[in-house]
Design goal:
10 helices; globular; 79% helix; mainly alpha
């Protein structure tokens, strides 16, 4: 499955690099959105049909509600340390880490407040975070690191990476993934802006 995911990703990159017309590019973007909506609908239907959702929520470990907090702290710390090591800067790195995988929003905020170069770096860094989630979730599943594996996805766990989370980590962790993604997504603009305040 991992090899198949990587091959599909490479094929998509190769296809996307071709000189298509803007109409075709727009069609691909719209098709991608509708495909994601369909996947999320099917996951929701599967969760609802596989048992009592209320009982599922009650059976979840209450400590899982704090998972987004650890995900956010880890992202900010990793971003800050990487920023120091690469001479991007402590706060700049923390702001990029605070993007939590939401590449379009974090890239725009950082471009507006700092520079187009750092905005592009934030965009690429958070795109790769999403890609790494697709690759590493199946690997971490083998090591029984389910809840910890969700932190890789950041804000993406409620939408784009939810299908692979549901596939490998199961329905209960899919519920946690949705909560995790919603909290992270709501806090991305706040986190990125806060990290940029000292600059």
């Amino acid at each position: 499955m991992i090899i198949a995911l990587i091959l599909v990703l490479v094929a998509g990159v190769f296809l996307g690099a071709q000189p298509f017309s803007m109409e075709f590019v727009d069609l691909i973007e719209v098709s991608g959105d509708y495909t994601l909506f369909l996947l999320l609908f099917l996951i929701g239907a599967e969760l609802a049909s596989s048992g009592n959702l209320r009982e599922r929520f009650k059976s979840l470990d209450i400590s899982m509600l704090f998972l987004p907090l650890f995900s956010i702290l880890g992202s900010l710390f990793a971003g800050a340390m990487t920023g120091l090591l690469t001479q991007v800067g402590l706060w700049q790195g923390a702001a990029i880490g605070g993007g939590m995988g939401w590449y379009s929003l974090s890239g725009v905020i950082i471009s507006q407040k700092l520079s187009a170069e750092l905005g592009a770096l934030a965009f690429l860094t958070n795109i790769f975070r999403e890609i790494y989630t697709f690759i590493f979730i199946p690997l971490l599943y083998k090591f029984k690191l389910g809840p910890a594996a969700l932190t890789i996805g950041g804000a993406t766990t409620m939408d784009t990476t939810l299908p692979i989370i549901n596939r490998y980590l199961g329905k209960d962790l899919s519920l946690i993934a949705i909560w995790h993604g919603i909290v992270c997504s709501l806090l991305v603009p706040v986190l990125v802006s806060l990290m940029l305040m000292p600059l």
